[in-house]
Each structure stands twice: as C-alpha cells, then as structure tokens.
Amino acid sequence: MMPSGPSPPHLPSIIEELEGRIEPAPLTWAKSLHRIPFKVLSRVRAAISPQLSTLPQFPTSTDDFREPLIDVLQTIVKVSGRRSRGGRTREVVDMNGMCFEHRGMKDFYSSPDAAIKAMGKSFELPRASLCPAVDATIGYSNVTTVIRFKLDSKTSDAEEDIIKDEVYRMGIFAKEIFQCQPNRLFVRVIVITERRVRLIQYDRAGALYTPLIDYHENSNMLIRFVVGLASRFEDQLGLDTSIQWGSHGGRKTPGTITIADPFTRLPKVYTMRSVRPFINRPDLCERGTRMWNVRDKAGRALVLKDAWSSGEPERGKPEYIYLAKAKGVDGVQQLVAYEDRTGRPNGEIRSFRPVSAGRPFTNKSFQRIVTPLYGAPIKQIGDEKKLLKAFHDVIAAHWKLLEKGVLHCDISTGNILFGEGKNPPPGLRGILIDFDFATEVDYTKPSFNPRSVPVHDHLDDLESFYYVLLDLIFSRFDIGRRCIIDQMEKEWDNDDDDLSASAKEYFISKPFDVKDVPSFWSEECKEMLMSMHEFIGKLVMEKTAIVGDMTQPWTLESMARLYAEKDEHYRKILAMIEKAISGTSTIDLC
C-alpha cells in the first residue's frame, strides 16, 4: 500500500531535493553490507528454502505473494535470533490495511507493504491518531525499515524507472523516518518482488540504490539485508548511539547526549530538557540540522546543535572553527564544546557509502556544537528601544568579527537573538548566531587577482541587516500597511536570483517614504530608517558601479578603495541607531 493519490504532498519536494543526488551502487557494496556469522546464515537459509518455493512464479498482483513473502521475512528475523534480545525486539509486520500518519500533513496517510517494528530506547510508540486506519502500535517512530512489494515485471535496472517509481516514492517513507527518529544518520529500505530484492539508502548526500538481486539464486543477500535491518545494534541501523533516551510506557523520556572531547576523547554528557529537538529540519538531504535544549552537569541551560558539514571550499569550514575565532567577542554566539566526527565510523557520508560509485557525491561530516542558551528570537519584539539596542550590538559584533577575518554571510531574522536575561549589558543585548554559511576574509593582504575578493562581502551583510530591520519594523503594522512590505519581500525572495537582485536594487535606489512606516514607531526610528536607506543605497550603487553584474573582471584598486572605508561604514550605521536610541522612549509594541 503506497500513499493515496497520484502525487503525494511530499513527492515534489523529494524530487527537487534528490535531483542530481541519486546514484547506483555496485553489487560489491551490497555484498559488503550486514555481514553475519556463517552458522546463522546457514540456519536461516535452510529455514526459508522450502518457503521460497511457495512464492508464485507468475503473480498478477502483489497480493498473490504477500502472505508467503511475509512468512519468509518473519522466518528470517525469528531464526536469526533478532526477534527478541535484551529488551530490543524486532518484528516483521504486514501493513496490509494499516497506515502511518505523517507529521504536519493533515488528512494524508501512507503505508509501506511491510515494516520491521522495533522496541528499544531509540524507538517509541506513534502518537495517537483520529484516523482508525492508523495503528496505535506501529509508525515511523518505531520501525527500523520499511519494505515495498512490487511485481517483478514492473521493475528493472533501467535507471529512469528506478528513480521515478522507487527512489523518489520510497523517499516519502525515509523522510518521515528521519523526522520521527531524530538520531538517524541514514535510512535503508528495501523493495522486493516475487523474485528479486533491491536496497535503497538515503542520507544527507542523497540516495543510493543497489541493482536487483535474485534471491532465489542467492538467498544470502535477502537474508543479510533483512537481518541487518533487524539488527539489535543501533549503529548498524544508522542510529546515533550518543543520543540515549529513557523510556516509560513505550514512549521516550528525556535522556542524554554525549560529546567526545576533541582533545582528550573523554565523554561530556548533557541532559535533555525535552524529548525532541526544538528544531528538526525536514529536508531529506542538506545539513539535517537538529537543535536540542540541554543542561550540563552544573545545571546550566545550553543549546546543542547537530548538522552535516560538506567541508567544500565554497561552503566554508565547519561552524565550530568560526565560533572558536569568535571567542570573547561580545554579541556573538559563544562556543562551549564541539565534536567533529570526520574520519570516525558513521561520522562521514563516505563511511557508509561505496568507495567508488557511479557518480561523485558530496561527502559531509557530522558536526556537533554546544553553545549558551540566549534570549528570544529578534522577531519577538518587546519594545522599540530593546529592538534597536539588540540590533546595535549585533552590527557591532559583526564588525568585530570582520576584524578577526570572519564574515557571517547569512544575516536573517532567524539568526539574531536577544541577549540573556532581562537587562543584558551593552554589547550583549543582541546575539548573532548560526555560522553555517560563514567564510573567511582578509582585506589586509594584497592580491594581484582582480576577482580574488569574495563575491559576498561585508556590504552584502550590511544590506541584509537593513532588510531584516525593515521586516521587523513593518511586522508591527497599521491596518492596510503590511501589504507594502509584503509585496517588496515577495519580489526580494524570488527564486530567480537576477529578478530578486533587480527588485532590491530598484527598492534601494528609490527615496524612502517615511509615511509608509507604521504610525506607532517613533519619529527618531523613522528618521533612522530614512538615513539608513539612503546610506545603504549609496553603498549598493558604489559597489554596482565597480562590479556590474559580476560577469566581467573589475579593478582591484576600485574595490580596495571601497573596502578601505569599511570601518566608516559600520561607524555611520551604528551612529544612526545610537541617535534613534537616545531620542526614543520605551514604546511597548506587544
């Protein structure tokens, strides 16, 4: 049973994510997976041999072989000894007539043909559902894998058929497993016909699929796939065992997350403040960011962040490197601890992929950082003066970071927080976070390459600060006024980079109409916006005059003159904000 309807809601996003990220795996890789003792293999092979002969040779639907194939799978798990040991049980479940609920997808339910149900501290019962077809004992939160049945005549090793009908659609299940099991590093699923079997792996680099393997001629492969995906060892299932939950009544309770000290390798244990991460990015590929509220052994509230870093030059270095450079800089997220799993088992994508596959893939390494828990997001504006003070401090922090050779490159409302406590001191009233896209810059070294400077520079970040401030100020709007900024943001966020840039350039080149600003902001704040609009617009025009559309070389001397004034750029913007703060009374915006 697959998702109902011609196009499940998740499918378009999965197709988009996996485009160019799907590759065939060689048979040698499939044979290297899930090795089991020869005695176990022989025992299971003898048990399923008579069962395999009962599978119909020419079925007209998967229902013709569903029952005998389920028997085969259940026998493999039972005879291999994987069914129950040490509180970690594994059970093959026939999902016929049952379905799984998808998080955040109203009235959408789906089901594989079979699944391996699991008990253990990384698994829990699914949430209660109003849909009677959703079983209360099995869901995405407590399966090790899912299985799809297909007619052998409906599949092949033709790449287009595999990608469209198998990799994309099985990705619906894999994506949900990643969401419901937040310690997942990779997900493996299997497609079985009445004669052959294929394994598909999903990870943060994309998807990988094996050729179809005839399990009547080579039953060892089917046995190893199923036994491996029913393993009681969670790391073999693609689960991160450094994350451990408690359990009560079949449901998880807050547990611990452990970091290996990068220098001593000694463990540092943090206690979860809640069962689930407060941020759990839904993307199947990309960075797989998850953020947890935790406490250290002294009881201090902290944030622990997991993400996969590509390490590619154009994507910058791992986040902890930039945070280490920011140590002691007021207004910047501070690093408490980190773990870089490069070179460790399951620590890099290449550690659970073939050495050489059909196409190159982007290797990524697992990174974990721990930072202090700061205040509320900048979007939760309390009063005007508090907002302006926070903004002042993050721009000042950005300046200090630039002096240390770090450029943030991802200024947005989601990456600015208020400082800790009710009355943080100057310098700590706003905090700049999230250095996933940061890069190193050095304006002090001479260069003979006229295009050696980064395409993204401090001028771009200052422009982004201005747009963030606009968004925040217009988020408290008079009736009928919000549409002004909404229309602008719609044009700025266009997927076409050229159209987006043109829309911003057009906006910034026009005079700022202070009458558009919501009435309850102070006159000082409105004056600040007008001055900032004029100043940022001037900088944008100066840079555009030098680099044009970035398709032609530009002179280093012209850019050097503009960059030489960077300190003055920051001074002027900070002075505008300081002037507005000094003339502004505390205006409650809640």
From TrEMBL:
It comes from the Eukaryota. Residues 140-340, 361-470 form the Fungal-type protein kinase domain. It holds the Pfam family Pkinase_fungal. InterPro entries: Kinase-like_dom_sf (IPR011009), Pkinase_fungal (IPR040976). This is Fungal-type protein kinase domain-containing protein. It comes from Ephemerocybe angulata.
